[in-house]
Amino acid sequence: xxxSSPRRALIAAxxxxxxxxxxxxxxxATFSPSQQQNLAEDKSRLGSTPPSCRxxxxxxxxxxxxxxxxxxxxxxxxxxxxxxxxxxxxxMKAKATVRKENAVAAAEGGGTxxxxxxxxxxxxxxxxxxxxxxxxxxMETKV
Length: 143
Known about the structure:
Elements: H1 4-25, H2 33-45, H3 73-85, H4 87-107, H5 112-125, H6 127-142
């Protein structure tokens, strides 16, 4: 025990010197007054940059938003109405009504979705009971 005690003390002293040396080598950053002023401006501007500014160049101080083109509501409504009243618009309306009718027919009592769901439920809930009965009978005949 006496041999390991000086060894432990030496290891503790070396590790303490290592930690103190590493801590003293860390320096804090020193900035010139102009750099400190720029840093303060950047920090104050961090959350106040307008969301529509695309370039984020910091050339304009404070950052000025880029103006988006504002569409006139009447003009947009007229263009949409023209598109929907044209041949393609009528074709899209016809396809939409056919798909709606098919969906309603499939969801009704004798429709394809109700037939599919009933067959799935029969397979899930009735087949396992029949299979378990067959396996029990098969095991009883072997014994």
